Each structure stands twice: as structure tokens, then as C-alpha cells.
Amino acid sequence: MDMLQLSCIQITIALLLFTQAKSTTKEISALHPDDAVPSCVAGERSALLAFRAGLSDPGNLLSSWKGDDCCRWKGVYCSNRTSHVVKLDLQGSDDYRQALAGNISSSLLGLQHLRYLDLSDNGFDKIQIPEFMGSLHQLRYLDLSSSQFIGRIPPQLGNLSNLRYLNLESYSDTYSTDISWLSRLTSLEHLDMSQVNLSTIVHWLPVVNMLPTLKALRLVGCQLRSSPDSIQFSNLTSLETLNLSDNDFHRSSTPNWFWDLTSLKYLDISFNGFYGPFPDEIGNMTSIVELDLSKNNLVGMISSNLKNLCNLEGLVSLGNNINGSIAELFHRLPNCSQNKLKDLFLPESNLTGSLPTTLLEPLKNLSVLYLSDNKLTGHVPVWIGELTQLTDLGLDSNNLDGVIHEGHLSRLEMLEELRLSDNSIAITVSPTWVPPFSLVIIELRSCQLGPKFPMWLRWQKHASSLDISNTSINDMVPDWFWIAASSVGSLNIRNNQITGVLPSTMEFMRTREMDFSSNLLGGLIPKLPINLTDLDLSRNNLVGPLPLDFGAPGLATLLLYDNMISGAIPSSLCKLQSLRLLDISKNNLKGSISDCLVNESSTNMTDLSIVNLSLRDNNLSGDFPLLLQKCTQLIFLDLSNNQFSGTLPGWIGEKLSSLSFLRLRSNMFHGQIPVELTKLVDLQYLDLAYNNLSGSVPRSIVNCTGMTQRRDNDDLRDAFSAGVYSAGNYLVDYTENLTVLTKGQERLYTGEIIYMVNLDFSCNSLMGEIPEEISALVALKSLNLSWNKFNGKIPENIGALMQVESLDLSHNDLSGEIPSSLSTLTSLSRLNLSYNNLRGKIPTGNQLQTLEDPASIYIGNPGLCGSPLSWNCSHPEQVPTTRERKGDAMSDMVSFSLATGSGYVMGLWVVFCTFLFKRRWRAAWYSLCDNLYDHVYVQVAVTWASFRGRING
Ligand SMILES: *[C@@H]1O[C@H](CO)[C@@H](O)[C@H](O)[C@H]1NC(C)=O
Ligand SMILES: *[C@@H]1O[C@H](CO)[C@@H](O)[C@H](O)[C@H]1NC(C)=O
Ligand SMILES: *[C@@H]1O[C@H](CO)[C@@H](O)[C@H](O)[C@H]1NC(C)=O
Ligand SMILES: *[C@@H]1O[C@H](CO)[C@@H](O)[C@H](O)[C@H]1NC(C)=O
Ligand SMILES: *[C@@H]1O[C@H](CO)[C@@H](O)[C@H](O)[C@H]1NC(C)=O
């Protein structure tokens, strides 16, 4: 070993002498050593080993770092003149699990000849950039980007006066409050400090202006606020690339210092809140190649000064308000003898009018034409077909119409992205047409492709995204489709009339998201593609039992509602450990829910990650499912309209501590409302209606802060969202299945359910007083305690429920006067106090005067008087007796069993809650209704309307 080191040193010295003898050119000659080059310097080898000792290397990137000759190690480059390590290229990996981690040892200082150091894309342990790096004086090139450094950028880097290239781009939390050290890097050509927080630095530009050789400056997302009008003596005469995207300038786009930089080739000032007109100044930037002005608040047509920018290759302006005709815009594009314009990217720009009928000169070389989300009208012109360089065509979300035929497409050999969604375009090509292109992205949502399945898709075998939803296809899915689509990542055929069955080979597809909902697909659910994460098969005709092996271990969303799936819920569901959203409502599932706790070999089965579970409208039975003990992250649980029975277990309140929505209506649960339920502090929606619950309402309900205060709904929103957001749509869009019962009707909620705060105990046998605490649930929008046996008075402070839109206390035994505070409920639009024993004067004022059908609100309370009833309170002797009043409303035929107020309540309670809501009793109920007096009929019909949705469904 010693001998070896000795010889190393001898050779090094020899080489040193040799190189000194020659005239030295100071250029990095960092090549991997060939056999002629001697091995590395021993001291540097130990420095490298010490450096490695501080790192952890899960991806084995440094596995070649063994043996004596460190110049042969991967990423280590020695000078072939001096043998010194001059370059260390240890760029990590996009996959952070494969990248280097750990700490950076100061032994790096042993490499004093280092000119090039790249440690980018690694995952160091959230350390600061080491100050000692400022002592690597020979460095020309330093890349520390995206490597999980945090904290202050050390000003010692200012000692690296030889630096040409410095990249500190950071996606962790780095900052600098003083960048004056930069001004010492006078040879710097490339500076990138993107995402470094520079928010406290006002005078950053004068510092940058000390760098006369700067060619590229990237300060993306640095939270910069100041952008001066001009620089007095600009040093930045070599600057070619300037990227100031995503800062906080929020000022007029002109005047501005960068418009004077006529050497600029690439300028990106997107996402900055610049306002004012589209700057004329651009016309002076004759070198400009690419210009990105996206997402500012620029208003008005682009400047006609652009006409002379003969080098312009790309004009990008997403989301500014150009607000003019597309033809006018095309006429203002550079028009030179040698046109270079390739990319025209102008989505969301308020462009109007039709595309011109002839191909204009400036457009002839386009490879990207992106005019999505504008207000374009008219046909898609045939000259599109002459743009033979076209790779991306985006015309989606406009008001275009007419037909696209082979003439538009047959010469577009380079086309990769075709986006035509959300227009009124029909794509009509011959069934035998073979397209010249192989598309990667196919977005044709809401185009007219049908009624036959579009045959040309057969040749698109490399698409990563295919959306042919809502395209009027009324056909059987052809076998070739499953082959063509097998490599598609995102597949959407939603909302057509596609028949056929899912293939048994589906498991071999590469699809990650599938939306087949609202079609006519039948048959069984086969084993799913292995990498599938989101699946929507809702609203089809699927039958049979659920698969015993779903086969998609990463499945996060599974929407199967509104099919005809039968059988029991298999324990295979418990194997879907990533499942977050499961909706199998509106099917024919029966039996009790399989208890994976028992079926798994051990009882320490890990918790499931499900947050949203809906099993409503099935025939499931048995006790409240024990399995749910393992679903500790549940936020939304809906078991309504099944045959579940038994008592509600107290562990709901302990195990399901995140629960915000609990819907158990229309089951056969009995016993008391467990007091533990009120430990669910986030609970904002509790629906226990139509069960056989008894006992009283726990006073501790007031602990449910979900009902007492408004809250930030971001976590809730998350619980209802699924899939990936692409092209303005969630691929798997779940929110539309959510319905809630409020204001007397089953309403379809789209996303708004997260704002619903609801308490519904109706149609049970609850008794005792309505706890005064209920008036503390001030976030409630709907409160329904009807059809129970509550007695005592209406809580005096009920008027505190300022958000309440619907309040139903009807069909109880409530007595006393109506609290006058009721008139302060300004949001109220539906009130029902009928059929109690309330008495005294009806409060007046505010919202109470505006309610519809006012008389029916109070009917069946013999002791009430005053408007809107016809009994005047000033003459109590005129108030009729209970018997007289009842006789008014009821026919003799039914009143015999309903002689007293409470008897009447009980009678109808039995009818409603026991018979009415079983489907088979529906017909009988209609005939019963026919025998009632009109007034009662109306009252019942109103109530009836509120339950129909679910009965019909
Ligand atoms: C280093 O080696 C390469 C190839 O072997 C050679 O082209 C280059 O001139 C050498 N540099 C010096 C400074 O000797
Ligand atoms: C231009 O750069 C040189 C070299 O860094 C510096 O000395 C000079 O002050 C700069 N000029 C301005 C106006 O900042
Ligand atoms: C363009 O440059 C010329 C010469 O420097 C100047 O006079 C003119 O004001 C500039 N135009 C704009 C719109 O800035
Ligand atoms: C489009 O222009 C109209 C005025 O013509 C304006 O009211 C609207 O806000 C603009 N839309 C966008 C997205 O800028
Ligand atoms: C599934 O995903 C893995 C990891 O991304 C990939 O290697 C594999 O090829 C995919 N398999 C299929 C069938 O798509």
C-alpha cells in the first residue's frame, strides 16, 4: 500500500514537472482516464472515501467507488495532466429513493483542484449548504439544485470568484436576505437561484448588474417584489436568457428594465401580476426567440410591433385577456421572408371570431397551435391539414362547429396531441381511413364521433391519454379497442351508449385511470389492470358478484354505484389497502359485510385508508359492520337504505374520530343514540332518520364542533375528489353522485355537500325534551326532528340557529308557545311545526312572513292562534276545540283512529315509518291517500315528495 502511494506521488510529481514544462492551457480537460493516465492522488482518494462515508446511498450510485484508482470511479474525473480530481459529477436521480442522502463531509476540501461539482437532484438530509464550499476556490461549475438543502444560502459562496455556472434552484426551504456576495462572482455566466426565497431583498437588480458576463439569469419563484423601470448603466449586455416567472411584481408591464435588454433571446415573465396593455416595447427586442407572458393581467390585442421579430419561434401567452379577433392576431404575427414561428400557445385569452379561411404566411411553420379555452366560432378550416410540421393541435373549449374530415388530418404525420374537446365538432372519416399519425394525447370529449365506434382509433396504439367521453357512440365496444387502448394511461369513454362486456384480459392493460361510467356495459367485473388507481364503472348494467380478486393493489378510487351488482361484499375488498373512495350504492348487494378481521390470518390487520364509503341503497343486513373499526380515516360514511339492524355501537365515536358525515337513515337500528357519538368533533352531518331509535338526544351533541362552527373545507374537499385533473376535468368525477336531503327534496349536490351541516333524527321513537343545547349548533343548515315523540317546549333560543334553511319539528308532542326568537331565522325557507300541541300566538316578522303555504306550517296545533291562521288571538273563545279543528281537516273515515292530537301523530307515524318506505307498500299508500281530505292530502304530498326520490331510486 505504502509502495503504491509512493509511486502515485512520484508519478504525480513527474506529471507536474511535465506539465509545467509545457505551456499550460487552462481548460477543463476532464476525461475518464485511459490506460495511459495514472491513478489518482492518494490524498484525494481518501478525501473521496471520507466524503462517501457521510453519505447514504440507497440507490447504490457509488458502487464503483472501490479500488485504488479513484479516477476510474463513477462520477470522478481526473485531469490527464495532473491526475488531480477536477470534476465530480454526482447528479442523483429523479426518483429521490435512488438518490444520495445523508450529509456532506468537509473532507470534500481535500479536492482543492476541483473545477466542476454537480450534486444536483439528491436528497441530502435537510442540511444547509455547507459554508466550506466557499473554499473550493478552483470551482468553475457548481450545481446544488434540487438536493433538499434548506436554510440560508451561505455568503461564503461569494469567494468562488472563478465560477462561471451557479445553480442553487431549490424545492426545499432555502432563503437569502442579502445577495451582495454575488457581485464578487464577476465571471459568472449562468445564475439560477429559482425558488430561493428572496422576498426581503429589494435591491436585487443592482447586484445582478455587477455581473457583466451573465448570459442566463433564472430567478423563478423567488418572491421578488421589485422590478425597476430601468437600469441606468446596464452591464447586462450579454444576457440572453431571463426567467423571472412566478414572482410578485404586481405592477404595470411598462416601463420595465428588461425591455431594454435587446440581446435577450428567451424572456419569461409569466405568473407575475404584470398589468397594462400588451407591451409595444417587445418590438425592439429583435433577438427574441421565445417570449412567455402567461398568467399576467395584460389586456388587449398583441402589439403590431411584433411584425418585425423575425427570430421569434415561440409566443406563449396563456390566460391574458387579449380580447380580440383571432384573425387580427394572426395578422400581427411576425411576417418575414424567413419565418421561424413554431409555437403559438394562446389558451384562455378571450380570442373571438373565426379562424381565417386561408392559411396565412406566419403560420406556415407551426408545430404547436394551441387556442384552447377561447371563444372561437365557425368551422375548423381545412388549411390545418397543410401544417405538416404540426405536433400539437389544441382547439378544445371553444364554440367551433362543423365537420373535421380526412382532409384536415391526412397530412399531419407528426401530430402527437389532438385536443378538440368541448366544441360542437363532428369528426367524420371513412371507416377504412388509416391515420398517418400516432397520437399520444387524444382529447375528443363531446365531439360527435358516433353512432358507430370510431374505427380510426384502432391505429392509435401509443396514446397515453384517450378521452372519447360524451361522443354519441351507440355501439358495441369492438374487440380491437381493448388492444388499442391497452397502453393508454388515462382512458375515458364516459357518457356514451356503449354496450358489451369488460374483457377478461383487462388485467393486462397498462391503464391507471378508467372512466366508463354512464354506458350500457354489462357482464361481470373482471380482474383489474395491475397499475389501476381510479376506476369509475358507475351507471352501467354490470351484474354478478364483485371479483374475489380485484387485482389492482394500488386502487384508490372504486365507483360502482348504480349497477346491478349482486351477492355479498367479498373480503378481497380488505386487500385494497390504498382505497380511499368506495361507492357501491344503488346495487343489489346483500348479506352482512364480510368481516376481514376474522378472515385474515392475524387480527392485527393494518388499518384501511378509506375516507369515503357509500353502500346505500342495497339490501345489506346484519349489525353495524365491525370491519369499520379498521377504517379509522373515514370522513364520509353512508349506509342508508339497507337492512342493518342492532344497536349503534359506542366505538363509532372512538375509532372513527375523523367522521364528518354519517348517514344511517332507513335501516332498522334500535336502541339509544350512543353518547359516544358526540365525541366525533368533526361531525357536521348526522342522519339517523327512519330507524327505530329510542331514548333521548344526548346533550353532549354540542361537542360536535362540526355543527357549531364553520370551518375550512379543504380536507373535506379532498375526501370527495378522485382521479387526476386533466384537460379541465377530473377524469373520474365523483362529486355528482352525492345527494342530500334538505328543504324537503332530495337534491343533487355537486361538490357543495362539503358545506352541508345537517342533523336529521326524523321518524324514530326519540323522546324527552329537545335539549336546549341544540340551539348552540349554530352552523346547522337543516334540522329535522319530526315524527318522534319529543315533548316539552321548543328550545327558547332556537333563533340562534342563524344558518338554518330548513327546520322541521312536526309530528311530535311539543307543547307551550312558539319561541319568538324563531322570527330571527333569516335564512329559513322551510318550516314545519305541524301536529304538536303548541299554543298561543304565532310569532310574526322577518322571514316567517315569506314562507310558502304558511297555514300548513302550523296545522294540527289546536292551541295556536294569530296570522296566518284564521283564529284571532284577541278572542280566545273563538279558538275551536281540538276535536272541531281535527274534524275540519280529516275525513270521518280516518279521524276515528286519530281522535286526539297525539293519537293522530302516532297513527300517521306508524303509516310513514313502518310501511311507507318499503317499496312494496307504495301502491297501497297511493290508494290510502285518495281517501284523505284535500288539505291533509296536500300536507302529506309535500312530505311525500321529499321521500320519493329514494323510493323511486
Ligand atoms: C488530455 O487527454 C486528451 C485525450 O487523451 C487529449 O485530447 C488532451 O489534449 C489532453 N489534455 C492535455 C492538457 O494534455
Ligand atoms: C458593471 O460591472 C462591473 C464589474 O462587476 C462593476 O464594477 C460596475 O460597477 C457595474 N456597473 C454598474 C452600473 O453596476
Ligand atoms: C425602441 O428603441 C428605440 C431606440 O432605442 C427607442 O427610441 C424607442 O422608444 C423604443 N420603442 C419602445 C416602444 O420602447
Ligand atoms: C373577456 O373579455 C370580457 C370583456 O370583453 C371581460 O369581461 C372578461 O372578463 C374577459 N375574460 C377573461 C377571462 O379575461
Ligand atoms: C406498472 O407500473 C410499474 C411501475 O411504474 C411498471 O414498471 C410496469 O411496467 C407497469 N405494468 C403495467 C402492466 O403497466
UniProtKB/TrEMBL annotation:
It is a single-pass type I membrane protein. It is found in: Cell membrane. InterPro entries: Leu-rich_rpt (IPR001611), Leu-rich_rpt_typical-subtyp (IPR003591), LRR_dom_sf (IPR032675), LRR_N_plant-typ (IPR013210), LRR_R13L4/SHOC2-like (IPR055414), RLP23-like (IPR046956). The chain crosses the membrane at residues 893-917. One of its GO terms (cellular component) is plasma membrane. GO terms for biological process: brassinosteroid mediated signaling pathway. Keywords: Brassinosteroid signaling pathway, Cell membrane, Glycoprotein, Leucine-rich repeat, Membrane, Receptor, Repeat, Signal, Transmembrane, Transmembrane helix. Pfam families: LRR_1 (PF00560), LRR_14 (PF23598), LRR_8 (PF13855), LRRNT_2 (PF08263). Residues 43-79 form the Leucine-rich repeat-containing N-terminal plant-type domain. Residues 208-420 form the Disease resistance R13L4/SHOC-2-like LRR domain. Residues 1-23 form the signal peptide. Belongs to the RLP family. PANTHER family: LEUCINE-RICH REPEAT-CONTAINING N-TERMINAL PLANT-TYPE DOMAIN-CONTAINING PROTEIN (PTHR48063:SF89), LRR RECEPTOR-LIKE KINASE (PTHR48063). This is Leucine-rich repeat-containing N-terminal plant-type domain-containing protein.
